[in-house]
Write a structure and sequence with these properties.
The complex is a heterodimer of chains A (179) and B (602). Helix content of chain A is 33%, strand content 20%. Chain A has 179 residues and is of the alpha/beta class. Chain A has a single domain, classed as Rossmann fold (3-Layer(aba) Sandwich), CATH 3.40.50.700. The longest helix of chain A is centred in the middle third of the chain and has 13 residues. Chain B has a 6-stranded mixed sheet. In chain B, 42% of the residues lie in helices and 12% in strands. Chain B has 602 residues and is an alpha/beta fold. Chain B contains 25 helices and 14 strands. In chain B, α1 packs antiparallel against α3, α7 runs parallel beside α8 and α10 packs antiparallel against α11. Classes of the chains: A alpha/beta (179), B alpha/beta (602).
């Protein structure tokens, strides 16, 4: 068992859609667990990341906690993968980048419909928001980018099997193009 | 007149077809902008109704052109030229001074509506800068004294017509004359001499002479002029067009400005000659908005030519030789120098480059066969028709016959216009213009080539270093990264946004150049720049995108030591200051606990 490839995953500022898509590999997950052991991931609910071969990140970087998690992953993972549009480009959450952070917070916590006791939260427990949402490669070095919103289960499967087998990464056209 | 009256007068029905009126849309907007200082919503609604097009399409047009605005500009609308050649002359300090003195932020009208101060791409006054546009007029040779004077005039609400005339003086600065500009050949194209040659012979004979002369396009691409004219002449159609590309937007290029100022008659002669050869009855001069001050004088030249029978019906009494020229203004879009974007813009649309082929010679203006040539090309063609192919071939190299006008600026004693036989060495040019202590030369503008001075044995010619005319000199005291940064910001601003490699690639490249300038780029970022640059070259839709990475790639290739000295030594650096990115949240929440900070990784 010690020879198994260790994989960690995390969702930063994303919608978990890429993780759902990972589950779309369906029964092939049985094949996958023959080859890999999951470290920190939402599937295992392990909270800290140990030394891993592959780290897979869904979502962009929107707050200080995202930065911390991402740095931990970079430190512990030999290969780091940006999975999906948000990790690659910032994606939907980055749509707030055309507004000031204050405008966003006021819209949500002050002016929003049905808001009671309007105030912008300032509890130290809450991760601080960055002024803009960034793709993960603007914070740490990234080895592979897998585009798509989300990348399909087949795309993820192709990628993982090629990576694990040490083959050059390549995809059939329909797995990587969206036109 | 009220805005309402101005608008009504400008867009009064012309009695022509709706299609013809639609091709005037950009011209209507330019006039409204010029007279009202913006395009009022009312004007958009009226135009939309009149031309039966969606208002959003008109707004799309306004959004595309930098000189058109939906919000009022100040009564005094100042645009400071932001070209690297203006930077070299201290324009950035002057911008600060101007903003401080007037109490405005760049791009935002002052609360009393008196004035706006903003920057614009190269205004083509590079040899006598720093320059600015004031309500569309050029003010050259800015100094802090002149800026103070300007501020005082604005605060006193002095009408621009009352401002000192020397502010608006723009000199030709012709330093070297050869075939085209020599005094001896000055009379060659006067009084329609080239057209007389055409009438004495025929179109084929003129084509033969031009082909034999080896004349190639002077805009920079170097397509053979004779071949272009022949293709257009042979294309099946009832109507053909001749278009003169005077959208001289390549930073550091200003030779067309001089030709249009002092040799406009020869240029129009060349256009009319071309019309006679290809069988066109309509011509357009597409004049960049920055040169609006030349509009009136050019129209006067056209009037004189009409009076002399050199334009209009039955030119020189020849039945069926009908041709006239209309001047269309651009509105601050560099991309419109690309011929298919220029044609789109002439048709009153956003200047998005077309797919090529088909080329304009068969499917150009209004989808009809069209010759688009540079100002200098038309002038050369007119002279060749009179003086012959051999006269032209006496100068130049086998592949690049004749002469080339260079517009030289930057770190040299004598900036201005230099006409050289093709094949001249860069060393010779540098000597003549009084450049000393030279570090690098930027030939052909932002889209061109950066050469270290060690390459000064290379020659200006299509077969070696090709240029539309721009020649900028940088001495050893300059930081070349300033230039590369200026150009990469320029291309982001000027990308038409149509294709992803240029729109996105240009921004990515700009961010990486900024990172390099700020000392945070690593070897990894250099690799990224090379990869993005080469992708832009391969995959962009038009020449803008495929040349936009040139300054960055040239920097990396020709000045590796300079780049190396500016790299951070870590393996990876974030693209932005992480802790500073939390400042806004700290301000909003008042937090300053450890969780409200991101430490720098070591």
């Amino acid at each position: 068992m010690a020879d198994k490839i260790r994989v960690a995953t995390a969702s930063l500022c994303g919608c978990f859609g890429c993780h759902m898509s990972l589950l779309d590999i369906d029964e092939r997950i049985l094949e996958l667990v023959q080859l890999v052991e999951f470290d920190r991931t939402p599937l295992t609910d392990i909270k800290t990341v140990g030394d891993c071969d592959i780290g897979i990140i869904e979502g962009g970087v929107a707050n200080a906690e995202n930065v911390e998690v991402l740095r931990e992953f970079r430190k512990h993972c030999k290969v780091l993968v940006a999975l999906g549009a948000c990790a690659v480009n910032g994606g939907i959450p980055a749509m707030r980048n055309s507004f000031e952070l204050r405008e966003c917070l006021e819209e949500a916590y002050i002016e929003g419909i049905g808001v009671a006791n309007p105030q912008i939260p300032s509890d130290p427990e809450i991760p601080m928001l960055l002024n803009k949402v960034h793709p993960i490669h603007e914070v740490v070095k990234v080895d592979h980018f897998l585009p798509g919103c989300p990348p399909s289960g087949d795309t993820i499967w192709t990628f993982l099997t090629e990576l694990i087998e040490g083959k050059p990464i390549g995809f059939p056209y329909e797995q990587i193009h969206y036109d | 007149m009220t805005h309402e009256e101005i608008i009504r007068e400008i867009i009064a029905p012309s009695g022509t077809s709706r299609a013809a009126e639609r091709s005037q849309l950009l011209q209507y907007l330019c006039q409204i902008q010029h007279q009202c200082s913006y395009i009022p919503g009312d004007a958009i609604t009226q135009l939309a109704t009149r031309l039966q097009m969606p208002a959003s399409e008109i707004q799309g047009l306004i959004g595309f052109y930098a000189f058109l605005h939906e919000q009022p500009r100040g009564d005094y609308d100042i645009l400071l030229s932001d070209s690297i050649s203006d930077h070299l002359l201290g324009s950035r300090l002057l911008l600060q001074q101007l903003c401080n003195r007037l109490g405005v932020a760049p791009g935002v009208p002052r609360a009393d509506g008196r004035v706006t101060v903003d920057t614009t791409s190269c205004t083509g006054i590079c040899d006598q800068g720093p320059a600015m546009l004031l309500n569309g007029r050029v003010i050259s040779r800015l100094t802090d004294r002149r800026i103070d004077h300007i501020c005082a005039l604005i605060e006193a609400s002095t009408a621009v017509t009352q401002w000192p005339a020397e502010f608006f003086q723009v000199d030709d600065n012709i330093r070297r004359r050869d075939l085209l500009l020599s005094e001896e050949t000055a009379a060659a194209t006067m009084d329609g001499k080239a057209l007389r040659v055409l009438l004495e012979t025929d179109g084929n004979a003129i084509l033969d002479v031009i082909e034999k002369s080896g004349l190639r396009g002077r805009g920079g691409a170097g397509f053979r002029t004779g071949m272009k004219w022949r293709f257009c002449r042979q294309a099946e159609s009832d109507s053909r067009y001749v278009v003169c590309n005077a959208d001289e937007g390549e930073p550091g290029t200003f030779k067309d400005r001089v030709l249009l100022n002092s040799y406009a008659d020869s240029v129009f002669e060349g256009m009319t000659l071309c019309a006679g050869v290809v069988g066109a009855s309509r011509g357009y001069l597409y004049l960049r908005g920055e040169y609006r001050y030349l509009l009136e004088p050019l129209q006067a030249v056209l009037r004189q030519r009409r009076e002399k029978g050199l334009l209009g019906q039955c030119i020189l009494g020849k039945d069926g030789f009908d041709f006239d020229i209309e001047i269309h203004l651009g509105a601050g879009a560099y991309i419109c120098g690309e011929e298919s974007s220029l044609i789109e813009s002439l048709e009153g649309k956003r200047g998005i480059p077309r797919n090529r082929p088909p080329f304009p010679v068969t499917h150009g203006y209004l989808n009809q066969p069209t010759v688009v040539n540079n100002v200098e090309t038309f002038m050369a063609a007119a002279k060749i028709a009179v003086l012959g192919a051999d006269w032209f071939r006496q100068a130049g190299t086998p592949e690049s016959t004749g002469t080339k006008l260079l517009s030289i600026c930057g770190d040299c004693e004598r900036p201005g216009i230099y006409e050289y036989p093709f094949g001249v060495t860069i060393k010779q040019v540098l000597e003549d213009c009084g450049a000393v202590n030279t570090q690098a030369i930027q030939v052909a503008g932002a889209a061109g080539t950066t050469l270290p001075v060690a390459d000064n044995g290379r020659r200006i010619a299509f077969e070696d270093v090709s240029t539309g005319g721009s020649f900028m000199v940088f001495n050893n005291d300059r930081d070349l990264l300033d230039m590369v940064q200026n150009f990469s910001h320029f291309f982001v601003h000027e990308s038409c946004g149509f294709c992803t490699p240029c729109r996105v690639g240009g921004s990515l490249l700009k961010n990486l150049v900024d990172k390099l300038v700020n000392g945070h780029a690593t070897h990894y970022d250099v690799g990224e720049m090379k990869q993005i640059g080469s992708l832009m070259k391969r995959a962009s839709h038009c020449g803008l995108g495929s040349t936009a990475p040139n300054p960055v790639l040239d920097l990396l290739n020709h000045f590796p030591q300079l780049v190396e000295s500016r790299l951070a030594h870590s393996g990876y650096e974030p693209a932005f200051d992480l802790d500073a990115a939390l400042q806004e949240a700290r301000d909003i929440t008042g937090r300053d606990d450890p969780g409200a900070h991101i430490r720098t990784e070591t």
